[in-house]
Sequence to fold (225 residues):
Amino acid sequence: SQQGEEDPQALSIQEGENATMNCSYKTSINNLQWYRQNSGRGLVHLILIRSNEREKHSGRLRVTLDTSKKSSSLLITASRAADTASYFCATVTEGGNKLTFGTGTQLKVEL
Amino acid sequence: NAGVTQTPKFQVLKTGQSMTLQCAQDMNHEYMSWYRQDPGMGLRLIHYSVGAGITDQGEVPNGYNVSRSTTEDFPLRLLSAAPSQTSVYFCASSYRGGQGYEQYFGPGTRLTVT
Fold:
């Protein structure tokens, strides 16, 4: 069963706008990771946030984690057409070493 | 570094045939894993290995075998292919398990079983 569920399933925005994707999970985690997948390609790691962290930034990416709500969000600011991809959250449970992926959000950034 | 490499990129099998999907990494990573990706299902873990000689099952292991005789290689064997195994298969590696370490993914193998 999926540990993480992303919302929305699909998102279409204009270039320059911000994109926000959400991830909810079921059990306590050690860390949560976000990955990007361009069409027909493998996944690329974007950012990792640990259970004792609340917010992390990397370039135009901002990730928040609310362990009380078992949820995370990924914000992409000033989006570009090149950001068009599927975005997945993945969790590692406490004491575990397996990464469990959600079903992903398909982001389309239009010119 | 080549990173994580997978061969073949595409494969068509008939039901009942067997084959091995190859995965290799040149980053001296201890942890390697195999996922399958199906539409609307995200990635599901098939098998993983925390080091040479050590493997364990993931979420969907039935119909697949793995072995890890070297740090570099982690082949995935389909014993008797079934149409339900039509999918895109990704191999990944990391320095350790998911605990605080990013996974590096290969480009994938697209498998069709007829």
Observations:
- The two ends of chain B are 36 Å apart (CA to CA).
- Chain B has no helices and eleven strands.
